[in-house]
Write a structure and sequence with these properties.
The strands form 2 sheets. This protein has a 7-stranded mixed β-sheet with strand order 6-7-8-9-4-3-10. It has a 3-stranded antiparallel β-sheet with strand order 1-2-5, with no helix packed on it. The longest helix is centred in the N-terminal third of the chain and has 7 residues, at 28-34. The chain has one helix spanning 28-34; strands spanning 2-5, 12-15, 22-25, 39-45, 49-53, 58-64, 67-72, 78-83, 89-93, 105-109. 5% of the residues lie in helices and 40% in strands. β8 (78-83) and β9 form a beta hairpin. The chain is mainly β. The protein has a single domain, classed as Metal Binding Protein, Guanine Nucleotide Exchange Factor, Chain A.
Length: 133
């Protein structure tokens, strides 16, 4: 079991089971949404994701057709994203998890549009556009 929250702790959740590898997305939208060089995403089955508190604080922004970025309306902290085409999965922001987090970096996606000021120095697979299926 893993727990986590937004910055102000109003939104709290738990994740059952083991965590999938962390997916680092370097696309321009993720950089803007996270305010950093990339987004750190962990796909989680909605059946394994339980919201413990703060449901009324959640806000969603449709950043592209069919993709919502969900965040806390109180502190603005990103929590997860979801695709209308994959309602069985949320892409949890890894930084929202309480430590310890037992997950490794899986891959880098959209590295063709990565921030020019951030070098990729690990050995994780890199995908120029998109991510593996």
């Amino acid at each position: 079991m893993h727990t986590g929250s937004c910055l102000c702790r109003a939104v709290r959740f738990e994740v059952a089971g083991d965590l999938a590898p962390i997916q680092l997305c370097h696309c321009g939208d993720c950089r803007k949404a996270q305010g950093g060089a990339f987004a750190t995403n962990i796909p989680v089955a909605t059946a394994d994701f339980t919201l413990l508190s703060g449901e009324g604080e959640l806000r969603a922004y449709e950043s592209s057709p069919g993709k919502e970025r969900v965040f806390c309306g109180r502190c603005g902290g990103p929590v997860f994203s979801r695709l209308a085409s994959k309602p069985e999965v949320v892409r949890l922001r890894a930084g929202t998890l309480d430590e310890p987090v037992e997950a490794e970096i899986g891959f880098h996606a959209y590295v063709a549009s990565k921030a020019s000021w951030w070098p990729i120095t690990d050995d994780a697979p890199c995908y120029l556009a998109g991510r593996p299926a």
